[in-house]
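Sequence dictates fold. Next comes a concrete instance:
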Amino acid sequence: RLFPETLEVPANTKFRLTVKNDGPGAAEFESLELRKETVLAPGVTRSLVFHPLKPGTYKFFDDFHPETSQGRIVAK
């Protein structure tokens, strides 16, 4: 599972998102809309830098567990 499932960020502002895999297997943060993807081994933490987003909702998911791990970034 991805937690939290909804992330709110300021629109038109560059930001950094830190993702951590607390699970026992590999996980992936992927967003086709935002053109971001990173695979994390168990216990690994990574940071992703996002360029300013226009106001809106952008989906992300774990490609290894798509049935249970989906979320969204909301730029306001």
User: Anything to note?
Assistant: The chain has a mean pLDDT of 94. The radius of gyration is 12 Å. The chain has no helices and seven strands. The CA atoms of residues 27 and 65 lie 8 Å apart.
